[in-house]
Amino acid sequence: MKNLLGKIAQPSKAHGRPDEGGIELQKTPLELPDVSGGTPCRVKVDVAVRLGDKVLVGGWSTGPLKLALQADGAPIATTETRFVRADVVAHLNLPKETQTGFVLMAEATPGKAVAFSWGAGKNRRGEQELVLKPASELTDDDSGLLGPAASLLTRQMAPHTPEWREAITRFPVAAKECADAKSYIEAAHVIRGTRHIIVVGWLVARPGMQVWGEDDQGNTYPLESSYRLVRNDVHQLFGALFGASARRSGFIFHAPATGTPTTFHIKALSEDGVHLLAEAALAPLSEDPVTFARWLFGVGAGDEEWTRRVGELDAPLLSGMIERARAQWDDYPVTARVCGKPLDAPEVSIVVPLYGRVDFVESQMLAWVRDPWIREHAQLIYVLDDPNLVAGFRPLAEELYSLYRVPFMWVWGGVNRGFSGANNLGAQYATGRHLLFLNSDVFPRGPGWLKCLVEVLEARADVGAVGPRLLFADGGIQHAGMRFIWLPEHDVYVNEHPMMGLDPALDRRTGVVDVPAVTGACVLVRREDFDRIGGWDTGYLIGDFEDSDFCLKLRAEGLSSVYLPEIELIHLERQSMTALGTEDFRSKVTLWNALRHQARWRTLIESSMGAAE
Predict the structure, then answer these.
(1) Nearest to 222, CA basis, from 309, 164, 262
(2) Under 8 Å between Cβ of 356 and 319
(3) CATH number of 181-327: 2.30.22.10, 3.40.50.720, 2.60.40.10, 3.40.20.10?
(4) Average pLDDT in the 579-594 region?
(5) Is the C or the N end of the chain the one with fewer CB within 10 Å?
(6) pTM for the complete prediction?
(7) Cα–Cα distance measured from residue 568 to residue 445, given in angstroms and rounded to the nearest whole number
(8) How do strand 101-107 and strand 79-83 relate by DSSP bridges?
(9) Is the pLDDT of residue 152 over 90?
(10) Rounded average pLDDT over 250-259
(11) What is 246-294 written as a DSSP string?
């Protein structure tokens, strides 16, 4: 520590810069005798620094002195912070609680001469021009002397600006634990490919505390933008100290990173300096939307405000990730093979996505070969959407054609694209005037069904989508049109399949039935309408709601969806969602998709079934 008193100087020339006989306050303490014979006042400037437009002057004084700053000889608004200087108190044998330390702060345009002024009564005044250090030359001792003004200084700056970052780097690392803020990082990741960081943990702080995130490359992050979670465990530990704010202390923070950070810190600023509250290494995390969703949905799994969270956190994160994944599809080479001689001008192109298994293809081939209308009017396109199927399907395709002599095309898009993406890819190779999108586990009960669907579509210009009745393998109704219902516990509309599981005899509707939507497991549309609405939406997670979204896109163009109860096909119950993980994860996927669906189509949904109660 510097010599605080040195040889106490008496005031000989106190105005302007000191000459050889003057007092240099930045080197020597100045003693101002009391005219009444009492204890003299003393003052010393230990550090004077410029931070942009801000000037900070730190030192100590005793007695009733009034301190201020001037710029080019004129007084400027000065903020004074007082605190205990234990070193001064010890040297001068003063009471321990005496606040001898000071930090003055003011704004002064660079280039102006800054002077320190003091006053002790009516006739005892003086000022002295200061030599200001640039912030880059501050020593640790200097920073320690300015620490008590750190919060005051940084509050006057826009957070996370270069000026603010420069200021916080000049304050010392606090030697003791922060009493006014606590934090812990439970997970910290860098998302591969996006260079976004995502940090999970908890944080409590008293009002007015400045707390921020910072990586090992010096980039700072405003934690105020974090999504907040209820943490009853933290509230039990710190509720007595921090009150109600400790209950919503959990956070999930994400932001784009600059450079390639490897560590994330949470810091706080007090008059003791900069506190390190928590730190963690940034581990890589997959940018695959499903893998990421599985991790993200497991964070704060008991969140009581899941609907709000999806809108504020999960939707922006996952939507961007899904969009980036979709943007890469064009980079993959597409393989297309034709088995047999296709029709020159088909009425209908049947598009069938394949994922997970291909054994149903032969069962469908048995139906195609027995349906003269399909053989004479339909183009068949199978879209492989699973890299694990490609090698085995090549010889299988040739074998199926040699057995059944039904021409067909198969396409592999180089990457899994999901239900909507596979349908869109198949449509790129379709040449029919109409498009039938069909699941691989849907099987006709006899010939002629497709012709009936086409006749309805061609007879009704106001119809955009036509779907048949689908039955479970046991004969119960699986699909008889779709409608929308309101789930008040989640504030969202979801899809419902009315009459599911019932005997078809209980569905007394006949002819062409208008419905809000039909399932994508078997739906016929005009090619021109498909192109007009931009095909299937690929922004949903995994699957679900794509078919109702498709029908609502048609409805937005003035085209309705209809159901034909007298045309029946068998639909084996889908197992893909079960294979995706726990029931909790599947439920959250459904809710995520439902909220996205509602955000896009709420007005049309309500016009189709009435406003939510």
Answers:
(1) 164
(2) no
(3) 2.60.40.10
(4) 82
(5) C
(6) 0.78
(7) 7
(8) antiparallel
(9) no
(10) 93
(11) GTT-EEEEEEE-SS---EEEEEEEETTEEEEEEEEE-EEE---HHHHHH
